[in-house]
Amino acid sequence: MSFYLTIDAEEATAFSIDASGRNADLCGSLDRNLILDTYGDVLTAAGRPVQPLSLRLQNEIPLGMGCGSSAAALLAGVLLANHFGELGWTGYQAMEEACRREGHPDNVAACWLGGMTVSAATHANPATIATACFANAGERSGWKLLLVIPGSSLSTEKARALLPETYSRADAVTNVQNTALLVAAFAQGRADLLRSAMQDRIHQPYRAAVCPLLRLLLPLGQSSKAESEQPSILGVALSGAGPSVLLIYQGDAKMVRQAVVDRLHGLEVELLEADISRGTTFEVTNVPFTNDRS
Q1: How far is 22 from 83, CA to CA, in rounded Å?
Q2: For 144-274, CATH number?
Q3: What is the pLDDT of residues 101-132, one digit of tens each?
Q4: What's the whole-model pTM score?
Q5: 91 neighbors 97 (Cβ within 8 angstroms)
C-alpha cells in the first residue's frame, strides 16, 4: 500500500525525533522506539559505536492496524545502522536482517520492494529470503485499495495467539490453491480470480471475533449479485493480522465507499484510499540507498 514512513537523519550529540503525521506522539517518543532500538541493536551486534542521530520523521502508516508499521520501522532502523555504521550491506542484505528481526519476510519484503510481493525463508538457511515482486501490478491492473480502519488497534501478538496449532487437510489445501490463484491474478491482471483467491480458511475465521469489521464487510467480496448491480469490489480480506479490512476494487471509488458505509450501519471508522506501491526509496542525509540486490 502506498503509505510511507519518511525519515531524514543526521549525526547529533544526542538522540532526538521531530515526528509528524499519523501517531506522531508514539513515533516521536524516544522510549521503546522500534526504529532507534533496532538501529542501536544492529550496531552493537556488529561491534560498532552507536552514533546518536537527529531524526525528522513523517509517518503515513497506521500503527497497530495490520498495515506493516513495525516492518517499516525495523527496516528503517537497519538501514540507518547500515549507513551510519558503515556496515557495507546491500539493500537485499539489509532487508534480510529486518526480516529476521520481524520473524517472517511477508511485511518487510513488501515494504522494501513494493508492488505485489511473495516471499519465504529458504529451507536450507532460514536467514536467507527468497522473494519475487510484481512491481507494476497496480499500474497494469488499474486496481485500487480501500483500507477500513476501526477505532481501536490489535497487537500482532494477540492476533497470532488466536490461531490454532494445527489445521485440517481440507483447509490447508484450500489455502494453497487460493494462494496460487492470487499470484496468478496479480501476474496476469485477472480480476475474475480475486474473489476466489482471497477466500481464507487459515487465519480470518479465528480472528473474526476480535476484528468485527471483517464479518460486516466480507460479504462485499462474496456477492452473488449480477455484476451490473454491485460495486466493483474484487476482494475483501483482513489487512495483515487485522483489525483493519482491505478492499481491492476497480472503477467508481465513491460507489465502493458508499457500499462500505451501508454495511457498517453507522459504525465509526476511517476510510483510507491507496494505490499499490511501486516500492521504497531511502535516503540518509541526501545519500541515496537503492532497493536492489547489487
Answers
A1: 26
A2: 3.30.70.890
A3: 998 899 999 999 988 899 998 877 767 889 98
A4: 0.88
A5: no
